[in-house]
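so my prof wants the structure for this chain in the tokens format not the other one, which i didnt know existed until like an hour ago. anyway here's the sequence
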Amino acid sequence: MAGLTLASPSAERKAYSPWRETWRRYRRHRPAVVSAGLLLVLILAVVIGPFLWRVSINDIDVVAGLQGPSLGHPFGTDDLGQDILARMIYGGRISLAVGLAAMIVSVIVGTLIGSVAGMSRGPLGYALMWLTDLFLSLPQLPLLLLLIYLFRDGLKTVFGPEGGIFILIVLVIGGLRWMPVARLVRAQFLSLREKEFVEAARALGASPVRQVVRHILPNAVGPVIIAGTIDVAAAIIAESTLSFLGLGFPPDTPTWGRILYDAKDFLDIGPHWALFPGAAIFIAVVSINFIGDGLRDALDARKVI
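here's what i got, hopefully its the right format
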């Protein structure tokens, strides 16, 4: 018919791209969009901040101790006159790096165990889930403190004070956060392995590894991403808790939790010292949780937005 034009196949693929649809759904979740912006600002601040704010984290000015926010010290100073903004920029890189690295460890371990348990039709799957339930039943904070106490000196000797503590905290936090990911991945695998497209691949002779890599895992990645965002927030809180208890990084390494720990005895005369790192932890954790909520809605094909 005259006046009618047919869209090319490439235009249709572009119009109905799964990633475009996911982005469209995510944009409709306003708190998630705002949270993504806030988290991006935090990340840019800790990455670019040292090039813009060149004050050393170890410069001591006792005369300027416990001063409130000013032009010379936008976040004020601590009891030794050290600039809190400079120390927060430095500590933010450590806190966010710990959260990201621990999330990677927990997602990798949880995905491996969950996928093996989900594909297994014998006692191996039940044994792995029994192991998962065993780890879930352990009290995480006391176990975390015990492992830090037992192994921190040895790792500090091998990798140095900062490197050893970083590796230990990442491995311990990630090693105690993989269980929810494993249960989630197993549930997805149990559902997806019986779908028609997996049955077709199996009938065509696809090996179990190929079934997982090409067909099942890509369709289960959405819930894994959501669980990963939650693990980042949990890892940041865990690292801050350890630093606040004095069992995290060395005293001369200012993480957000360590700054809070140093400020706890001066809340009455220097509340700004605790306010800014506490606000940074709060913003980071709440932003990541809202981002997880937005991703959950965007990746859920059953939800109409």
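also thought this was worth mentioning. The mean pLDDT is 83.
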